[in-house]
């Protein structure tokens, strides 16, 4: 049970209460999908504090927490409930609380030590539950269907923003609440921008076009990238495409449980470096996805996190040549006991339209 895992970490940190304010951590622990409320966890009790607007919603969504309505300041209600629950040392999410909000809590928590902690809930979110995996697979199916759909609309003269909007409309029709992030459609020289959000630029013949998009579905995010060509993009662009493709396929084949994020990153990076393009691959190989589009673990040269079954990560090497163009290919994979399971299945070999 999630609450018991939080309490186990509280015991290790020698705190007897935990205040959850981050919206994603709050949703993970309580199931609440609204926009206002905090969770307060003690050793033997837990309450969810919200205002009048969300009381009925929280009664339906929130399990294993007492529902408390605050009519005055939420800070004062947290202090009152903490005192009622016998909390003497209250942990707070230091990575998510502004200094202004911190001082508002500090001013009312008389006689209670307010202790900064990190990654209490994020550690739990690293390993997905069976239900989370089911949703992430469905979110991946939506982006696969969207990619197949958009291929029929790509042609010279169409603007990047038109394609991005069509992807958004299509994914919503398939059940997504929205896209996971601002959709990237980057054509020609703009494909050298790793995060080239769709612009008014029209697509031209002979260009590569990078699509990086995801479906925000039942609270979870998918994330896929494909690069295609509109007409022959030339030998240099085809060369970097094939290098990225092989690096990405190596990553998908070799990344597995027991590797660190650094070791996983090296699988794709070493191949690209050996081909002479290391300086043009300036971001990490991948990142975790779930409630957020970027969450732990990261597959980067700075990450010592050990990959474990149940983690869901992206594998997305790229090469970007300024002023010319770039290529990125990305899949979502589920780490398993004996390797990984690929969740996104759209064709990766170069498509020339």
- For the biggest β-sheet, the strand order reads 4-3-2-1-5-6
Structural class: alpha+beta
User: Shape from CA axes?
Assistant: elongated
Q: How many domains?
A: 2
Radius of gyration: 23 Å
Average pLDDT, rounded to a whole number, is 97
Would you list the SSEs in sequence order as H and E? HEHEEHEHEHEHHHEEEEEEHHEEEEEEE
What is the fold named in CATH at topology level of the largest domain? Creatine Amidinohydrolase
**CATH H-level name of the largest domain... which superfamily?**
Creatinase/methionine aminopeptidase superfamily
Task: Kindly estimate the percentage of residues that lie in beta strands according to DSSP.
Answer: 15-25%
Ends apart, CA distance between termini: 50 Å
Total beta strands: 19
Show unreliable segments: none
Keywords: Hydrolase, Metal-binding
Cofactor: Mn(2+)
InterPro entries: Creatin/AminoP/Spt16_N, Creatinase/aminopeptidase-like, Creatinase_N, Pept_M24, Pept_M24_MAP, Peptidase_M24B, Peptidase_M24B_aminopep-P_CS
GO molecular function: aminopeptidase activity; metal ion binding; metalloexopeptidase activity
